[in-house]
Design a protein that fits this description.
438 residues, alpha/beta, globular, Rossmann fold, four-stranded parallel sheet, 12 strands, six-stranded mixed sheet
Length: 438
C-alpha cells in the first residue's frame, strides 16, 4: 500500500498526516514537505511505472485522465478516487519554439505551456490535490468552513474554480490594483469571497496566515506542501513527453518559489525510482523589481527579504517568498542559476517570442529574457535541450499586450510595437499599406 505524509524540511523527528490543517513543523516552525514511501513505490520497476503512466495519459478512466491524477501513486495516494476534484488538468503542450530559439542560437528550445489549463495557469496542478484533500477531510467529518489564499491572481483563480466544483466556500485576498482584470474576474465569477486589500502580496499573505490559525479556515498557499505535490508533475510530464528523456536546462519564473522546489521534487522522485539517471540544470528567472532570490544568489545564498516594487510580472511581485529555503536547497542540488530581467527586457522578450507565433504572459517574458541573457553569454549553448516553463496564459494579460503595442508602458522604449493601421474604406489605401509592409 502506497503512503505519503508530511515531514519537516529541517529533519525534525516524526511524520504528520496530510489530512489535517498543518503547514509548519510543530517542533521547529519550519516548512513541511511531502514524503513518500519509496520502498513501497519500488515494488514496480522504472519501466513498469513508465508504462503505467503512458497507458493512463489523457485517457478517460476516472481520475487518471488528469495528468496529475494519472500519477496518483506519486502524488497523493491516500485520496480516494471518489473524493478527487479534477478539471482534466495538466497534459499541456510542450511547444518546440524552433524559430524563436534559432534566433538565439538555441535551436532545441521548448516551451512548456502550463497556461493551457482549466483556469489558465500552472496553479491548477496543485489546487486539484489540495481541494481534493479538503473534500476528503470534510467527508470524513472534519470541520472546514472555507479554503483561503493570498494571491497575485492565478492562485485565486484556481482555488475559486476547484472549490466551486467541490462545493466548498473559497476566500481570496488580492492586492488592490495589482492583478489583471481577467484575474480579478475569475474568482468573482466562480463565487469566491474576494477581498481586495490596500497592500501588496506579502501583506495579503500575512493576513491569510492569521486567518488559517483559526479553526475551520484551510490555507491554500504554496507554504502548504500539498499544492506542490501537484505542481511537481510538471517535471514528470516534461520528461514523459520526451519519451522519458531529461532536458539539459529548465528555466522557470520565480516569485513565492514553491514551483522551484516542486520542480526539484519531481526530478528527485524520478531519480530515486530509476526512471531517470541525470539531473537538469534549473534556472530561476526573477523580475529585477522583485528579486530577493537573485540577490541571495549573488551573495552566497545569504537571503534577506526585500520590498517588492511594482512590476509588469505581477504574479511574481513578491519580496519575502515563503518557500525560500526549499528553493535554495533545490538550486544547490541542481547546479542552479538565478538571473533577473528588467521591465524593458521582459516586455521585449515576450514580444520577440510573440512574433514567432506565441502569446506570452509577462512572467514567461521574464524567463525568456533570462534565456536570452544566458544564451548571449554562452552559458546556454546550441547543443543543449532547453525548456522554459510558461506559467500562465497570455490572454490573462491582454492589457499588458495592449499597452506594449500602444507604446504606453511607463518609461520604456518598446522596440517591437505593432499598431493597427487605420484607413478609409478605400481599396487603393489598403493596397498601399500592404505594399509598404510586405
Amino acid at each position: 500500500m502506497y503512503r505519503a505524509s508530511f515531514r519537516c524540511i529541517s529533519g525534525c523527528h516524526g511524520t504528520h498526516t496530510l489530512f489535517a490543517p498543518l503547514y509548519r513543523c510543530p517542533t521547529c516552525g519550519d516548512l513541511l514537505e511531502v514524503a513518500h514511501d519509496l520502498t513501497a513505490l519500488a515494488d514496480r520497476s522504472a519501466g513498469a511505472w513508465m508504462r503505467l503512466f503512458d497507458d493512463r495519459y489523457k485517457r478517460t478512466i476516472w481520475p487518471y485522465g488528469s495528468a496529475v491524477w494519472g500519477k496518483k501513486e506519486w502524488v497523493c495516494p491516500d485520496i480516494r478516487d471518489d473524493q478527487v476534484v479534477s478539471m482534466d488538468e495538466g497534459g499541456t503542450n510542450l511547444l518546440w519554439a524552433e524559430r524563436y530559439g534559432s534566433t538565439l542560437g538555441v535551436p532545441d528550445l521548448w516551451i512548456k505551456q502550463c497556461g493551457n489549463s482549466h483556469t489558465g495557469s500552472f496553479k491548477d496542478l496543485g489546487m486539484t490535490v489540495l481541494v481534493s484533500a479538503v473534500r476528503q477531510m470534510i467527508t470524513d467529518g472534519q470541520q472546514v468552513r472555507a479554503i483561503a489564499c493570498a494571491s497575485t491572481g492565478d492562485t485565486s483563480a484556481a482555488l475559486a474554480a476547484y472549490a466551486a466544483a467541490a462545493g466548498i466556500p473559497a476566500i481570496v485576498l488580492l492586492p488592490r490594483g495589482k492583478v489583471s482584470v481577467a484575474q480579478l474576474l475569475q474568482p468573482i465569477a466562480n463565487g469566491a469571497l474576494v477581498l481586495s486589500l490596500d497592500t501588496d502580496f506579502d501583506g495579503c499573505m500575512a493576513i491569510v496566515q492569521r486567518l488559517a490559525d483559526q479553526d475551520g479556515v484551510y490555507l491554500a498557499n504554496s507554504m502548504n506542501s500539498l499544492r506542490l505535490e501537484g505542481q511537481k508533475t510538471v517535471a514528470i510530464e516534461i520528461v514523459q513527453q520526451w519519451d522519458w528523456q531529461v532536458p539539459d536546462v529548465v528555466i522557470i519564473p520565480g516569485g513565492n518559489l514553491g514551483n522551484v522546489s516542486a520542480l526539484g521534487a519531481g526530478f528527485d522522485l524520478m531519480l530515486a525510482l530509476g526512471v531517470i539517471s541525470t539531473r537538469p540544470r534549473i534556472v530561476v528567472a526573477q523580475a529585477a523589481r522583485a528579486n530577493p532570490l537573485y540577490l541571495a544568489y549573488q551573495h552566497g545564498w545569504d537571503f534577506a527579504p526585500v520590498q517588492a516594487q511594482e512590476t509588469l510580472a505581477s504574479a511574481i511581485q513578491i519580496g519575502n517568498p515563503v518557500s525560500i529555503k526549499k528553493a535554495i536547497r533545490t538550486l544547490q542540488a541542481y547546479d542552479g542559476v538565478v538571473e533577473q530581467a528588467t521591465e524593458s527586457e521582459l516586455a521585449d522578450a515576450a514580444a520577440r517570442a510573440d512574433r514567432t507565433g506565441m502569446f506570452n504572459c509577462p512572467h514567461t517574458g521574464v524567463a525568456l529574457a533570462v534565456l536570452e541573457k544566458l544564451a548571449a553569454r554562452g552559458e546556454i549553448t546550441r547543443d543543449q535541450k532547453v525548456v522554459v516553463v510558461s506559467t500562465a496564459n497570455g490572454l490573462k494579460f491582454s492589457d499588458f499586450k495592449l499597452r506594449y503595442h500602444q507604446a504606453a508602458l511607463d518609461g520604456m522604449d518598446t522596440s517591437l510595437v505593432n499598431r493597427p493601421v487605420e484607413l478609409p474604406n478605400d481599396y487603393d489605401s489598403v493596397r498601399r499599406a500592404i505594399d509598404e509592409r510586405t
